[in-house]
Amino acid sequence: MDFPRLFHVRQKFPDRRLADIPQEVKRQLEASGFAAALKPGSRIALGVGSRGISNISTTVGAVVAYWKERGFSPFIFPAMGSHGAATAEGQADVLAHYGIHEATMGCPVISTLEVVSLGKTGEGIEVFFDRAAWESGAVMLINRVKWHTDFAGTLESGLCKMMAIGLGKFAGAQRYHTFAYRLGLEKVIRAAAAKVLATGRVMGGLAILEDAHHNTAMLEAVPAAKLPAREEELLKITKSWMGRIPMPLDILIVDEMGKNISGAGMDSKVINRSVNGEANIWDTAPKIERIFVRSLSDLSYGNGVGVGMADVIHDRLLNRIDWHPTLINSLTASTPPNVRTPIHFSTDRECLERIAPTVGRLAISDVRIGWIRDTLELGTLQLSGNLQGEIRENSLLEIVSGPEKLEFDEAGNLGWMREARAAVEV
């Protein structure tokens, strides 16, 4: 098939990156007053999650250093639900893969699935609390505040969600998602978080906000008394910075998906999909007819959650999936459609040639194509030449080079957006 040629395009997102993350961590924690409320020498439990948060090891390391310099005894615990195949060892490994372990952080990492029950909420939800964190002097959470991939609300993913599903570990994640099926996840997060806050064990957290380039753009220490109200405000800020696909497409090519990129494997609010299988459900994203995903990120460690949102995948992706952690994660989250196996072929060429005739275009040259590395990195992408008019009309888009032909190698495969982008930027 004679596919349309592609332009290399840059999206002009503002660069909001912090110049000095450790210094900003220190400034925020000093202003928070957290330390003044604690007994000298207290053990501080630092909850850390498993998403692909930029500069997470630098941020966590700075938090550890702050507490140690003031004579406290911090330790890190994985604040995760079913990640790491729902094992203590697996969750510690997830943190280690992000550079967070005792040797780099200078403090212990205590990973356990043991929990303490806090009783039930008014809705009948039993709430749990990581035992190691419960037995500490105080708990501080470190997490990114962002939109959630499963639902839209005034409180989505962040410190409050970590207080619920993260602190609740596997036991909590199972129950919370079961209740969420009927009540909605936001209501469950709010109810569980309120129960946790009522214990007085959580001093607050460090909220991380990222810009559209996936840079660490803002850090804020939020006291427990200001949660969840302040988190709602932070969510509005980060949503306003969100990177997006700039126009409707017939085919979106995605080089990689994975848990390190999004909890759902791909950001559903970028690709306009639901984790339960529906297409084009978000009014904040352009319509995308078909999604072709080429591979699974190394840092997903075999977890293929999100594959069910694709319409076609390369065999290389399917062959990299480890179904044990994938199924645990999907079933715990009550989203079995998110791991359905799409149609798949052994070459990129065949994947595109089979899916292109299904988008309602009489001529292949009219098919509107976009190509991204993953749903986090949207600053540079490729767009088909038939979109030239729309590109030039959009003041936030800049054509860097092209249009160039889609080049397949002898095996029928494409190169990678990472390499193509580097070549253009040089």
Task: Give me a quick take on this structure.
This protein is of the alpha/beta class. It has 14 helices and 15 strands. The strands form 3 sheets. An 8-stranded mixed β-sheet has the order 12-11-10-9-13-14-1-15. It has a 5-stranded mixed β-sheet with strand order 3-2-6-7-8, with helices on both faces.
Structure description:
- The structure is a single chain.
- The chain is an alpha/beta fold and about 425 residues long.
- It folds into 2 domains: about 5-15 and about 245-425, no CATH class; about 20-240, LarA, N-terminal domain (Rossmann fold, 3-Layer(aba) Sandwich), CATH 3.40.50.
- About 30% of the residues lie in helices and about 20% in strands.
- The protein contains 14 helices and 15 strands.
- The protein has helices at about 20-30, 55-70, 90-95, 100-105, 130-135, 160-185, 185-195, 230-240, 270, 315-320, 325-330, 350-355, 390-395, 415-425, and strands at about 5-10, 45-50, 75-80, 115-120, 125-130, 140-145, 200-210, 215-225, 250-255, 290-295, 310-315, 345, 370, 380-385, 395-405.
- It has an 8-stranded mixed sheet. Strands 3-2-6-7-8 form a 5-stranded mixed sheet, with helices on both faces.
- A hairpin with a 5-residue loop joins strand 4 (about 115-120) and strand 5 (about 125-130).
- Helix 1 (about 20-30) packs across helix 2.
- The longest helix has 25 residues, at about 160-185.
